[in-house]
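Work Package 3 (structural annotation) set out to generate three-dimensional models for the target panel prioritized at the project kickoff. During this period the team completed the workflow that converts sequence records into discrete structure tokens, so that structures can be stored uniformly alongside our sequence database. As a representative example, we reproduce one entry of 324 residues exactly as it appears in the project archive.
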Amino acid sequence: MNNFWSKYPDIQIQLNDIKSNLSEFHKTGEKYLTESFDYLMQTGGKMLRPAFVLIGALMKEHDEHEKISNAAVAIETLHMATLIHDDIIDDAKMRRNQLSIQAKYSKEYAVYMGDYLFTRVFMILAKYDYTRENLYDISKGISKICIGEMMQNRLRYHNDVSTKDYLKIIAGKTAALFAVSLGLGGHLAGVSEKDAKNLGRIGYNVGMAFQIKDDLLDYSSKNNVVGKDTLSDLANGYYTLPVIYALKAESSNNLIKILDDQDIKEEDVMKAIHIIKNSGSIQKTEALADRYTKRAMKAIEDLPSCRTKDILRDLVPILLDRKH
């Protein structure tokens, strides 16, 4: 987490507790298994999704602190499971500057570890009397994540993949869990249905902008800023929005020839990146990210005066000014 949450010490303290609870809850009687979970916890990032649960809950005074913290643990467990499976699908060797679980322990082990974490989500939720609506929303979030991954896999190497397809993929892979996290926190704190839905809308738009900005980082002047391997993504047929826009540009023929090559080499991928950067697609992608950011900020202004509103007003522009 570094110092990302230092401006909000109460949230930082709660996130540290959640991280401790995660480590404790996922301990097993087997030393090797416990060590692998401890290793997974070392690769943790900013813990944005559990933080969104906490921020959503700050909208109203409540006495559900343990229940909300428990839900945040479940959300982060779900996120970790999806990252493990994502790395297996992408054959990613690194995750946040460390060996990925599948690279360190084997793909087979990583599959079971991801599955195990999915089951733990519902064990965590069984600890408290969550409503059917809470459980449905979380299950729906898991479903959307899986649909997003399946769509992305189905559309590998498709030169005709549309912007709409891409947005559906990231809506499932990224935005759904942001939406669930923020809305769930508000719902558990007892906010109105209208406010809970608006929180979900904010989370969705933040998640969409966040992922688009993340894909833009692959084409920034500093390569691999967030540890994503652009060369591998293109070579393996995963086309993000800058690529999709470039494929629709007038100069797309040379790009298509490169991407259609069955034996694509690193120098070919570098040529593709050059074409993408000079196609105008970076600017179009930035414009779409800005549209989602503006939608998020507008929805934030529709919230009643509360600490949640103040934090989101301050946090979202910082979060979406992606440099890392």
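The first helix runs from residue 9 to 25.
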